Amino acid sequence: MRAISFNEIEKVVNGKLVAGDGNAMATGMKLDSRQVGEGDIFFPLIGAKVNAYKFIPNVIEQNAAGMIIDDISYLPENCPIPTILVDNVTKAMDQLAKYLMDELGGRRLMVTGSVGKTSTRDMLTAIVASKYKVESNKGNLNSIWGVPLSVAKLQAGMDFYVIEAGMEWAGEIHTIADIVRPEMALITNIGISHMEHLGSREGILKAKLECTDYFNEDSCLIVNGSSDLLTEENCKGNYRLKLIYGEAGKGETYIKDVEDYGTKGIKYTLCVDGKEEDVRLNLPGAHNAENSALCILAGLELGISVPDAVKAINEMTITGQRLAEKTNGKIRVIDDSYNAAPASMKSAINTLMSSEGKRKVAILADMYELGEDSYKYHVEVGEYAASKRVDLLIAVGEDAQGYVHGASKLLSFDKIKYFETKAELAEALDDLIQDGDLVLVKGSRGVEMETIVAQLLEK
User: Fold this and answer.
1) Which of 52, 100, 203, 215 is placed for a possible disulfide with 219 were both Cys, Cβ 3.0 to 4.6 Å?
2) Does the predicted TM-score (pTM) go above 0.85?
């Protein structure tokens, strides 16, 4: 983020400077008071658990550049740093981010979907980088709050910016699309995450399609037509639409002959424009056949050949704990602890069972944000794990009892272990895992199953 004065920010966010020197400059944006440093603007938010306004004294001590607030009652007397009062802090973040994004210029691409967004963003960024200068949002800063923070970190002078967009409520991707104004968007799938907020999968589809709200007739939407709701009828609009399918006969662009080599990767044939292209990826997970095909198709739109796109994917590094194989010399762990949903759980189980190992062990924690049918989906995943004949299923968490319920229909009870808490699992872990085991660890982000991965690797 370039240096910008508070006088300039005041105009951008339609606020009023109520403290400090308007000529002072800012070079960053922060929400977490613990991360605020010199040059940063602090945006205090009030959440379900934390009122960030309480940390204003700490932020001042940490030499913050200034603050943007919407409640003046928390402002200390004679506040020494520039402070702008606005109607809504979140809206002010969005306004400033849009202003900064417009200044950056470049062409913008967006990635969204229920699962697989981040790895798809990473693949698309790698492909674009094979021919152009490109930057993307980092880590999991993909929310209505995370995207503005990401924009503040983007460098000027890029040909392309790739932005991953997540959401919890309807309207959030619309806001992100307003900030980014993408010319192309990719939708990986329509699942059931955030069902409790959006009511139905149709509601989720409508929210995801907000990525097209600022499209024009030259814009392009690329979707995974194998996801049942991502049909031509549902996705059409005043823009170019491209669908890729997981089987032949449904459209001109499809993939076929998918082979899953577990942690060693996947192989498939991509059929596009009447040609067949063999694709061999080091990336594990059969679901990444469809996700990578979306990105390769986007690359073709930008003048990047299939072989160059495949080479770029094979040379990249995936963000976070996503089907990453790790070992301590005694056991191997498939670390997929970043997040979880029913579809990604099943895909991870497929990867486990397609890989080599003395025993195939699945440690599965709760899946969050699935709405009132959450337990049913846990039962479904438990049944799936049992149908694939895992050697040992370890379930942890309250809703994870559903895994046990589902798996017990096909697996004997000596192959199923249940722990109510992660702490209880940690105490028993050494007795459950044997040398030579291949262990899948997966759960929603809030469970923080990476701690179990770390304990396994210390064995």
Assistant:
1) 215
2) yes
